[in-house]
Amino acid sequence: MNAEIIAVGSELLLGQIVNTNAKFISAVLADIGINVYYHTVVGDNPLRLKECMEIAESRSDLIIFTGGLGPTKDDLTKETIAKHIGAALVSDEDALRSIEDYFKKVDRPMTENNKKQALVLKGAVVLPNDHGMAPGMYLKSDKNAYMLLPGPPKEMEPMFSNYGRDVLLDALEIHEKIESRVLRFFGIGEAQLETDIIDLIDSQSNPTIAPLATDGEVTLRLTAKDPSAEKAKSLLDDVEMKIMEKVGKFFYGYDDTSLIVELFKKLQEKKLTIACAESLTGGMFQSDLTSISGASAIFNGGIVCYSNDVKVHHVGVKQETLDDAGAVSEQCAVELAEGIRNKFASEIGISFTGAAGPEALEGHPPGTVLVGISLPNREAKAFKLMIPGSRNNVRARAVKYGCHILLNELQ
Amino acid sequence: MNAEIIAVGSELLLGQIVNTNAKFISAVLADIGINVYYHTVVGDNPLRLKECMEIAESRSDLIIFTGGLGPTKDDLTKETIAKHIGAALVSDEDALRSIEDYFKKVDRPMTENNKKQALVLKGAVVLPNDHGMAPGMYLKSDKNAYMLLPGPPKEMEPMFSNYGRDVLLDALEIHEKIESRVLRFFGIGEAQLETDIIDLIDSQSNPTIAPLATDGEVTLRLTAKDPSAEKAKSLLDDVEMKIMEKVGKFFYGYDDTSLIVELFKKLQEKKLTIACAESLTGGMFQSDLTSISGASAIFNGGIVCYSNDVKVHHVGVKQETLDDAGAVSEQCAVELAEGIRNKFASEIGISFTGAAGPEALEGHPPGTVLVGISLPNREAKAFKLMIPGSRNNVRARAVKYGCHILLNELQ
After folding, report:
1. What pLDDT digit, counting tens, does each position of A68-81 carry?
2. Minimum CA–CA partner of A25 in chain B
3. A308: closest CA of chain B, how far (Å)
4. Order of strands, sheet of B208-214, starting from the edge strand that comes earlier in the sequence
5. Which of A265, A282, B117, B205 is deepest in the core (most CB within 10 A)?
6. Among residues B60, B43, B39, which one has the least CA distance to residue B9?
7. B127-148 tens-digit pLDDT
8. Which residues in chain B have their CB less than 8 angstroms from residue A343's CB?
9. What family is reported (chains A, B) (predicted)?
10. Residue A141: count of CB within 10 angstroms of its CB
11. For helices A259-270 and A391-409, what crossing angle results, to 10°?
């Protein structure tokens, strides 16, 4: 069983966007044991799309298309495929209803071309779109199987993970169970992590261990195959235990979690509220925290104290601290954390101050970050970090370090 | 003149990395007027690479390869191409010397397989690698032209920008100038925008007009070609004027800008400071604003007023407003905007309150958003929005609407 992914969209060929969809789908297919031999990108052009289809049909069993399912004139993937394989396009009632609901909700008139999005290949399994309008679909012909997915990643990714993957497992009668698990690490580099567990990586093929570094984190993806799901899981458990023996102190969570989600869960579990004073991060920690549904149980609010004036008058930093040590100092971070904790009557205060860059601040080079933590019945502390990279890398990484430090303090 | 980009590397097909090289090269080619009709990705497999080459030779004039030029066993792009087109591989003296220099510099012994990297196709123009070892090359045969570039983006990008692009301009004797411009719109859907200007899209091919929807915004990319750059620009001006007549009220900026950047520039230009009170957006507006270097000139800080208690005690919303109208109300948005403006001594106050979801709040469905604006010498106002989508879509879209509303108010 081998697959090819065809992305349709002139914006890809013009270099306006990157084909992240092919990467996402390929990683999922690798997990479930389907070999991907080709990615193709073709523009919004029916003739060239048809030619790419013919090439793909001759060399691949499964062809997955992304893009070109929208309402506009240059969205023509569905129509081109329908014509090529001789399938009719029929309106899908569920899809049409959800498009109509969308327009009612936003109180905008639904234009005629939006109905086009509800058309599906006759006989296809329809994949619901929980984050947009155009549904996906899967259709098997005598020789090939076709899956059509929308182009925007925020629609495509959940559709493929939640529906497309299962349809493929069913349709292809994959009986071997594939279990995978992602272990997430923070505070260790990819090269170091790999060095620490190189004997494990080299000595076995089931489960496989695949390291990946992204956004300052390192993940290990473990994938085990076995006719019995139980057995596959226990293979994962065994290798996880061996990995933890070596690098467990950097581990923070499984699969799709994140540092902020783990922090939220910890605060919820311990019934603690948190308040935040943010200088260089400018609200990012609080924005991340409130991106989680239910945040109001552990968070009342905080202050973005970008100027020194706000640090003094609204959070309670002493003027002499700023005069003597400056805003980029451990003392300032400590007073911000204590001040915000008191002002917002929370159990925990956390603060972020420092030099995000591109310029130095008060003589401190960009990337100098202080995280302040104030906890009940303990003296407030500051943690100093040096974070490399651009202004926004420094800010985002500072927020992750803040979560990581607080998680450790709460152990 | 049309081109195809073939990326060679099994790590792309396994979903371990994204093919950013194709985007980078495509954007440069679009600028110099070479049409890219296909991207292909193929693994480190000589047979499949050869088949991809044959397909590319039949449909594309120029074939650009990335990847597979390194020292290891599975780097086989050069060897496969040499065999396929019947060209000899010869050692390039400059390349060999720079590889030897590299090993002297890092004080490591040069292994035999590293010499392989200095081999180039006989007769090719050699492209120096200023950030790595493997040189690139360009070779023209009777029918096709071939360019080989290394895979790592930090080697490939400068090589292509500094050497590859000029070689192509020379070799292809390109005299026509290409000008492009992106117009950015907010507050109108892609289908509606296209409907409004469909006659323009249909009636002309120079400039071309390409709509693209991303993150609640719609862009139109205009591309004009003419032997004279002046003329190409004036073609863009003409069609831009016609577009603006129809949908100008939704236009907010050109090319790579964003709503928050436009707002920042406007505040800077008018020398106005802003303070912010955020409930449902939880700090996102302030985080976005402070992602811009120089934000301190127009922003002192603000409050994340997630709980009602913080709204009353730290921003100055009247308790009776919350009792009577609730937190998801125009009155609350107005008092938040006025309150934060006064407390933080800024010229402008902006506020965000509402129901982000997934649950309704105070009987208001998810997506109900109120943006409050308080300006000097004007009565504060609130704007009510209904934003569809997930919790985080609602929050992110609310921030964009806030920028858009304030930009309009400041006109």
Report:
1. 998 888 889 999 99
2. B15
3. 8
4. B208-214, B217-226, B177-186, B251-254
5. A282
6. B43
7. 999 888 899 999 999 899 999 9
8. 314
9. Belongs to the CinA family.
10. 12
11. 30
- What pLDDT is stored for residue B31 in this prediction? 77
Residues 6+ apart with CB under 8 A from B34: B1, B2, B3, B62, B168, B172, B174
Calculate helix-pair angle for A77-85, A46-59, nearest 10 degrees. Answer: 60
E strand or H helix that includes residue B253? strand B251-254
pLDDT at A49: 97
Q: Which domains are seen in chain B, by residue range? A: 2-171 (3.40.980.10), 177-254 (3.30.70.2860), 259-409 (3.90.950.20)
The DSSP result for B262-288, as a single string, is: HHHHHHHHTT--EEEEESTTTTHHHHH
Does B25 contact A15 at a Cβ distance shorter than 8 Å? Answer: yes
- What is the predicted ipTM? 0.78
Which H or E element spans position A391? helix A391-409
Specify the length of chain B in residues: 411
Asked if B210 is an interface residue toward chain A (Cβ–Cβ < 8 A), one would say yes
> Quick one: tokens of B82?
């040499």
Phi/psi at A244 (nearest 5 deg)?
A: -65, -35
| B 134-193 near A (Cβ less than 8 A) | 189-192
Query: Would the CA dihedral through A237, A239, A244, A247 be positive or negative?
Result: negative
CA–CA dist A324, A342 (Å, integer): 23
Q: Which residues of A touch B38 (CB under 8 A)?
A: 13, 40-42, 48, 52
Q: What is the pLDDT of residues B43-65, one digit of tens each?
A: 999 999 999 999 999 999 999 99
Residue B238 tokens read as 């003409």
Mean pLDDT rounded to a whole number for chain B: 93
Q: Between A46-59 and B46-59, two packed helices, what is the crossing angle to 10 degrees? A: 160
Are the C-beta atoms of residues A9 and A76 closer than 8 Å to each other?
no
How many angstroms separate the CA atoms of A391 and A393, rounded? Answer: 5
Say how far apart CA B138 and CA B136 lie, in whole Å.
Answer: 7
Structure tokens, A270: 């311990």
Contact B62, B148 (CB under 8 A): no
Percent of chain A at pLDDT exceeding 90: 77
Consecutive H or E run containing B177: strand B177-186
